Amino acid sequence: MFEKVLIANRGEIALRIHRACREMGIRTVAVHSTADAEAMNVRLADESVCIGPPASRDSYLNMAAIISAATITGADAIHPGIGFLSENAAFAQMVEEHGITFIGPSPEHLIMMGDKVQAKDAAKRFGIPVVPGSDGEITGEAEAKRIAGETGYPVLIKAAAGGGGKGMRVATSEADLMAAYTMARTEAKASFGNDAVYMEKYLSHPRHIEIQIIGDSHGNVVHLGERDCSLQRRHQKVLEEAPSPALNAEQRARIGKIAADAMRSMGYKSVGTIEFLFQDGEFYFIEMNTRLQIEHPVTEMITGIDLVREQIRVASGAPLSFTQDDVVINGHAFECRINAEDPETFMPSPGRVTDFHAAGGLGVRVDSALYSGYRVPPNYDSLIAKLVVHGRTRNEALMRLRRALEEMVIGGIKTNIPLHSRLIAAPDFINGAYDIRWLEKFVAGEI
Ligand code: ADP
């Protein structure tokens, strides 16, 4: 096992990884920008190294500075966390070239899943169901018309280099197809410098269902069920739950097995998430995240498995500590992403936290690096806390979530806690009857 792990990230996820390391008897090195010198994970780490100024490109994305910090401190491994360099194959490769273990999948899998067209192609090859559409890039207008005719309207034109929902256009009939095609290409070129686009059947009311998998370097891959992340605003997840209220045991077992079998054939090692749209009983692959996910705690709550600990273990070469049969889903969990932002306008609200009190009690977990007096810097993502609850049933978890939200105190800055409180009181949410477009309508006051 590693003796010392460098955590190349910040905020709550850096603290989450620190906690797993400490429980494994591993020493930690925090790296931080000048804006994060006072951060909780920096204070708790055994050692810390400042790697640059606040701008991410000069600090958390600065590969040379991070690798130098690992070398100077004698770290055996680097955990990249989420975002930043976590899915960067060049970084993973560079880390390994310095004789340090990258806690994540192989660079080959990072590359394969980092490109949307390649990823969809690989998914298909390994037996994962995908959205019907073009086989890779569309080469011209005639091809666009032909494929749309085959799949049926509406269709979605998507940028091959896309991300964050940019470069996507819906065409409802052949009459809008050319305009949508041209606009998607123009937007793709402007946003990503690459005008390659592909086409998919447009799903009108899907849910976002994702399967958590983990593999080791001995050929074992296990799935840990699904998370329902349909509550999204501008393609950002807001509240997640597991299990999904929309799946039955047969659907869960079927898609979980498909995902685990595909990852086993690929030789995937580390944690990973296969994301699907789910509509009318069918699953359609959209992408794979080759890293830990922000919402991993809901899976931990219903399985009792520490995913970060397991991820570190498999990176060190150890076999998985459990088999598929050992994974038993117990009860229900929710996670609210608490952001430093105005709950009405969604404008970021950085600044000094005057008071912080985390909810507690049975079945409540708060993952946050906040403390009273902490200043939320304006330079990064606005996620400041995750409130996670577990109950024996969905209803018990929901009642617990309601009371835990009432207990949370974050003073001095605005947060989206009022939005969460409103959201969990909505009858559609209580009934689990929502798709990926529901939250936008709710926020717009249409529900
Ligand atoms: P990005 O990488 O830009 O986030 P994704 O392929 O993950 O692109 O799609 C982003 C979001 O767009 C999905 O979460 C879903 O809400 C929507 N979406 C993607 N493909 C389809 C589709 N075929 N039909 C309907 N909605 C889709």
Structural key phrases:
Rossmann fold; D-amino Acid Aminotransferase, Chain A, domain 1; single chain; 3 domains; 5-stranded parallel beta sheet; binds adenosine-5'-diphosphate
The main β sheet shows up as: 8 strands, antiparallel
- Got a strand count? 20
* DSSP summary: helix tally: 15
Strand order of the largest sheet: 13-12-9-10-11-14-19-17
Count of individual domains? 3
CATH topology of the largest domain: D-amino Acid Aminotransferase, Chain A, domain 1
Shape annotation: globular
CATH architecture of the largest domain: 2-Layer Sandwich
Q: Which consecutive residue ranges, at least 5 long each, have pLDDT under 50?
A: none
Portion of residues in beta strands equals 25-35%
Helices and strands: which structural class?
alpha+beta
CATH homology group of the largest domain = ATP-grasp fold, B domain
**Level of helix content?**
25-40%
Radius of gyration based on Cα positions: 22 Å
Catalogue the ligands.
adenosine-5'-diphosphate
Mean pLDDT: 97
Q: What is the end-to-end distance?
A: 52 Å
CATH class of the largest domain: Alpha Beta
Organism: Dongia sedimenti
Enzyme class: ligase
Domain Biotin carboxylation: 1-444
Function: This protein is a component of the acetyl coenzyme A carboxylase complex; first, biotin carboxylase catalyzes the carboxylation of the carrier protein and then the transcarboxylase transfers the carboxyl group to form malonyl-CoA.
